[in-house]
């Protein structure tokens, strides 16, 4: 059973990046609690989710070890070890556009962000007492939290490399990042590694980085097209020279070591104080030696222009011809004309009153449907289908604005009802009997706006009162008007505060970070550093030109 569970987890989460994951490679020592996988080749599409013009040419994970302390789940940390992670990427060669697949991927990404937005709101509104009623749930949640907060990560021998022989075929180049060792673990406030059980509202992490470097080799030999065996041998030999402090590459950033102490507040409530950031990082480095050659600078310039072209191609990749310009020039002329015409037609359509009216109806319809979705919990099939149709038609930014308006409305109404229940006076028994008469109960609109109707009912009821009852009624009316003024003032103040929050947070793209006044505070300490610009990156002929 444990083997099947581990295989399902690996197929679900690791299988997206690993080629032909074979669960027969899985070996689990039940007494030690070790899950170990070796020699896992990476998929060619492992970088596709990043939406960058790169694809994996060759890659392998030497070993993944997950250590589970079976006999000490609540007293010992879990550990994840990754060794010999080698990846070589190159420029994207398959530029074919699959409209159905692209739309499905966009819809999935949009729904993930919308679900995360709604889940965060539900968590903030969740009554903590409901969770406390279940001791088993509390036990499981606390144990899961301790496991996640105390996971130890150890990564050894990592080499990410980009090879390009397309931008400049006469002089192929390769850029890469090499890391000898990276570790992360939980600590106490003094920076000592410990197993944290009751962390309160603050968690401490220590990240240790050893021998991290960045290089760019010009006119070099490419290894991405080698077989897997030859590729592993070449990468291992390169890593061996790297650990022996040789210079197998033309470094832009010489190997450095650094430590980072991370302090994170885990409170679900927003941190409003400007002196209390959500995350505090103290970053310490011994030395940085940075040098850039003229030939390396040219390579980065070519790479940067290629990324710009990719961003422009993304908008018009739907009808992009497969043939080259020399093969079918007429198709490329038509493609260029249609790209401009489609943009002009879209702009003209959006500037018509018919489009504005229809879009306004859709937004109002989605507002009402989503309000019912949150307040009623279960909506009918028609509204559910309508909600999904609108979510497919609108982009994420439009949907996010409408959802935030709904959430703001619910938050305001919740605070208003709480204020009324604590501030309005209780009626006596005679008034309660009078209010219980169905014909005398004011509607919702009349309770919010008593001046817009309903006064005739009050005057009719007043005619049948005695003088003493009339005086009491007038006093209660005055008191109600005063209470209503207090409620309106509270609502007005709340609306003003919400408007100011929206104005202050309008520059942020993510609505998940806007609740904290200060999200992160970082401190960098550097012992020494150097910066050099060279005519050539080759060590034997390098000369400073600045």
TrEMBL record:
Provide the GO biological process annotations. Answer: mitochondrion organization; protein retention in Golgi apparatus; protein targeting to vacuole
Is this entry keyworded Transport? Answer: yes
The signal sequence is none
Residue span(s) of domain Chorein N-terminal: 1-535
- The species this protein belongs to is Patella caerulea (Rayed Mediterranean limpet)
Tell me what this protein is called.
Chorein N-terminal domain-containing protein
What keywords are annotated for this sequence in UniProt? Transport
> Which Pfam families does this chain map to?
VPS13_N
Transport recorded as keyword: yes
* Alphabetical list of InterPro entries matching this protein: VPS13, VPS13_N
